[in-house]
Amino acid sequence: MHETMELTRANRGYDRVLSSMCTYPHPVAVRAHIEYIHTNLGDPNLFPEIAAFERRAITILGGYLGAADAVGYITSGGTESNIQAVRASKLLSGTRKPNIVVPESAHQSFEKARDFTGVEVRQASLDERHAVDVNAVDELVDENTICIVGIAGTTALGAIDPIPALAQVARENDAFLHVDAAFGGFVIPFLEKKYRFDFRVGGVRSIAVDPHKMGMSTIPSGGLLFKRPADFDAISTNTFYSVERSMAGTRGGASVAATLAVLEHLGVNGYRDVVRECMRLTNLCVEEAAGFGVYPVIPPVMNIIAFKLPGLQQIALRLTARGWRISVMGGALRIVIMPHIDETTILEFLNDLKELVKV
Ligand code: PLP
Fold first, then answer.
1. Which of 180, 200, 222, 333 has the most CB atoms lying inside 10 A of its own CB?
2. Residue 8: other Cβ atoms inside 10 A
3. Same domain for 318 and 225?
């Protein structure tokens, strides 16, 4: 193993971590990151090679998301991507009292988007599958709605919103449709079951997809992609040395190099293998837990499981005392089966859970 990876592990790393949407970066990403650690994409003229890396990375991501000609940039993560998408929709709209409609399951980055841009954020309720209720969205939309947000892989449950139906509402109301696939963007394209959630759905204008989550790149690497160049241009600012479309000015090129390196190294087959193994362990975990009477809130769509548990807080505390890092979200015990989790870890976790559920 690469010596840098050993350093990372010595620093506790992700042992018994079931709460994170991040994981060990792939060794090829780590190597590229180190090699380009000095680079600054805030001045692409100084680092044209990295600027070209970024364009290549966006083309590959666009290809996974149904539009190889998409444009965009490598952000610091899903939060920046979501804020920038809302900002783009606001700059494009010209509406004086704009609002956006997001699912109740939306990530808190949309609250930050509200604070930065001044848009009102309306929350639409969810249906029994914990995906957004399209009728609720339809009721909240009015002539001042500039953007509708759909989530492809919610933070708490990994649920996928009905993007084609949201696209229809967006088209009918002339609103921008942003898909937050920060987590799911590196899972859904590689699942056996197919979902319509990306640029192939007419009306999807931008997508957030994070290489630093299931993409196995280094932190910070997010991706913000736009179908139309004019939408990306909406967030451009002229500097005295170039045109900037990012939120940050000075920004590292290292994670851009890391992202391209791992994208090219793993490719479709590599990511499919990663996702297949995560899903195998997810299904194993659900089946074994059912054996002692513990069930998920929804059958997992991706590698996120939220278990319904009586005595949740007590069990969570005891699991934490045994060294497990888990989350309590939406009244459930939520775990994410990332690539650093192996079968032995899952079986150890299940043993502990079984013991604690019986107490
Ligand atoms: N969107 C979704 C669906 C997420 O799950 C997350 C993080 O968990 C984010 C956005 C924010 O990503 P980041 O923490 O990289 O800013």
1. 180
2. 15
3. no
Is the pTM higher than 0.70? The answer reads yes
> For ligand 1, is residue 113 a contact (CB within 6 Å)?
no
Helix or strand (DSSP H, E) at 180? strand 176-180
Q: Domain span at residue 347?
A: 2-22+267-358
What single-letter DSSP state applies at residue 152?
Answer: B
Based on the fold, state whether residues 280 and 154 are members of the same structural domain.
no
Percentage of residues of the chain with pLDDT beyond 90: 93
Q: Out of 74, 76, 79, give the residue to mutate to test ligand 1, the one with the largest number of ligand atoms within 8 Å of its CB.
A: 79
Lookup: tokens for 38: 């000095």
Q: Are 255 and 213 in contact (CB under 8 A)?
A: no
Q: Would you mind telling me the total number of residues written for the chain in this entry? A: 359
Average pLDDT across the chain, whole number = 96
Which tokens in the block code for residue 334? Answer: 């939520």
**Distance from residue 180's CA to the centre of ligand 1 (Å):** 8
Count of domains for the chain: 2
Task: Give the mutation target among 102, 109, 163, 207 for probing the ligand 1 site: most ligand atoms within 8 A of CB.
Answer: 109
pLDDT digits (tens, 9 = 90+) for 264-294: 999 999 999 999 999 999 999 999 999 999 9
Q: Find residue 225's DSSP bridge partners.
A: 72, 207
- Round to whole Å and give the CA distance between 146 and 113: 13
H or E element at residue 335: strand 332-336
CB neighbours (10 Å) of residue 290? Answer: 11
How far is the first Cα of the chain from the last one, in angstroms, to the nearest whole number?
41
Quick check: 190 and 336 in contact, CB under 8 A? no
